[in-house]
Amino acid sequence: MADQQVPRYPEATDQQAVDCGGLRFEATFRAPAGATLRVFGKVDGDMAELLRFDDFIEGPHYHIPAAGDPRPFDQGLLGEPLTWFISQLRDHLAELLDEAGFARVLSDVDVDDVTEHAEDIRKAMEACVPDGYVRVPGVGLRRSPA
Fold this sequence. Notes:
By secondary structure, the protein is of the alpha+beta class. It has one domain. It is 27% helix and 35% strand. The protein has four helices and eight strands. β1 and β2 form a beta hairpin. α2 (81-99) packs across α4 (118-127). Mean pLDDT is 92; it is low at 1-10.
């Protein structure tokens, strides 16, 4: 899938990508909001954005499907956003794709391979964050103190 053209978003910088399990995980930083993880896969032969996780400083949220309305992230209940997002991809990818209406792509997805590369996806999300921002353990993405 590395040869496939995936849209690059003009507001995004420092793109990092991980291709595994038949999917492409693209991490970008959307200043000043925060980091975004887009999950792409082939739907009816064409690349499509399936899921999106917005690890924003203010109001982290996710979209299932990617084109769907944002779902607020409850940090008090779920903890640090990136840790939760990665655990969902690692442990519940099939359920997420089914809920998003993309169950038909599961026959082309190696869920175990995605599980094995979950830390690579996390590292991509960490690597896309530019200077001036930090990840606070247990809290999430924040602007660096001046």
